[in-house]
Amino acid sequence: MVKVRTFNIKHVNESLREEIQQKIDNLNKPKGSLGRLESLAMQVCLIQQTPSPNLAYPCHLLLGGDHGIEREGVSVSPREVTWQQMINFTKGGGGVNMFCRQHGFNLRIVDVGVDYDLSHYPDILNRKIARGTKNFLYEPAMNEIEYEQALSVGIDLVDDCKEKGCRLLSIGEMGIANTSPSSIWMHLFTGIPLEECIGAGAGLNTEGIRHKYEVLRKAVEKYKRNAMNDEPIHYFGGFEMVTAIGAMLRAAELHLIILIDGFIMTACALAACHLYPQAKDYMIFTHCGDEGGHKRMLDALNAEPLLQLGLRLGEGTGALCAFPIVDSAVRMMNEMNNFDNANITRYF
After folding, report:
1. Mean of pLDDT over the chain
2. Strand partners of residue 257
3. Secondary structure (3-state) at 155
4. Bigger pLDDT: 205 or 237?
5. Closest by CA position to 126, among listed 94, 106, 153
6. Which pLDDT score, from 0 to 100, does residue 261 have?
7. Is the pTM of this model over 0.90?
């Protein structure tokens, strides 16, 4: 029996809430007039336990891994796209590269399970556990040892970011067919019918979506195990997804702000909160995409996303696009004058 790492995650300390609220209300504006920025500022301040937060050294983890279930034709894209895109990221040509440059994020490209030898690319961190997961239609995607390895990679990546001064983390993924395990996690952890959890992924047509549903339905019917513990995570998940869960839980343990991207990363957040519900306090849900079921999964988490741009690229691009909104909330706390200093009569 493998001993899986446990996390000491606590709900954010609420003792500063009144002080933070007073600071927000005393900024030279009508009370509540900056809307969502005010509640976002409150969340960030409570995470960092200060009325003067900062977003130093933001880091973006781009995690790559392949999936055995891809062999069943559940994705319109073949698995070689995973390694091809990973190489493309090293050349700065991906959407994730553009947004990281735009917003000043430190990008870390990590191979945790790509079915290709990427060891000759020094800009890709080699944390490969295996060359893709197994096909969960016939057997567990990973064993418990691999599960623990993937969690540990996520922990180590976050520890390294934290040592360099990181206060905010975003996570993206590259893994053909990873909407399939995401849909199954959504079904098992929320009780939403499986058919309502499945969408087009990278672009399946109606017939393709029906085929995907039949494959996943058979896999779930064969599973017939306990969905209340962590077993569904390693039975169906990808290495990049479990690494993301380890990163999210470690970031919450360290009181870092976590930006949650689209469907796959929301599924990882759902799994993380399944294990540690209090981890949600540290998560900012940034985007609701077009993937079938994403809004319903966000609703199940009682999460209100910042954006709805129709994105379905993955890579963490929705989180990166939302960063300026979080930055605005923090700048509001640190740069906006208050009524007393500005000699303005309170007008609320």
Report:
1. 93
2. 168
3. helix
4. 237
5. 153
6. 94
7. yes
At residue 84, the 3 state secondary structure works out as helix
- The reported pLDDT for the residue numbered 250 is 98
Q: Is 173 a catalytic residue?
A: no
Cα Rg of the chain (Å, integer): 20
CA atoms 120, 124, 127, 130: torsion sign: negative
Cβ-based neighbour number of residue 60 at 10 Å: 28
Single-letter code of the amino acid located at 166: C
Rounded to the nearest 10 degrees, how much is the dihedral formed by the CA atoms of 131, 133, 135, 136?
180
CB 137 within 8 A of CB 231: no
What SS3 state is found at 284?
strand
Structural contact between residues 275 and 269, judged by C-beta atoms closer than 8 angstroms: no
* Contact present, 57 and 167 (Cβ < 8 Å): yes
Count CB neighbours of 292 within 10 A: 18
Instruction: Read off the DSSP letter of residue 332.
Output: H
Residues 6+ apart with CB under 8 A from 261: 170, 171, 172, 286, 287, 314, 315, 316, 317, 318, 319
Q: Enumerate the β-bridge partners of residue 307.
A: 287
Q: Which of 146, 240, 291, 315 is catalytic?
A: 315
- Output the six-digit token pair for 220: 């779930």
- Cα(241)–Cα(261) distance, rounded to whole angstroms? 13
Q: Residue with structure tokens 């440059």?
A: 101
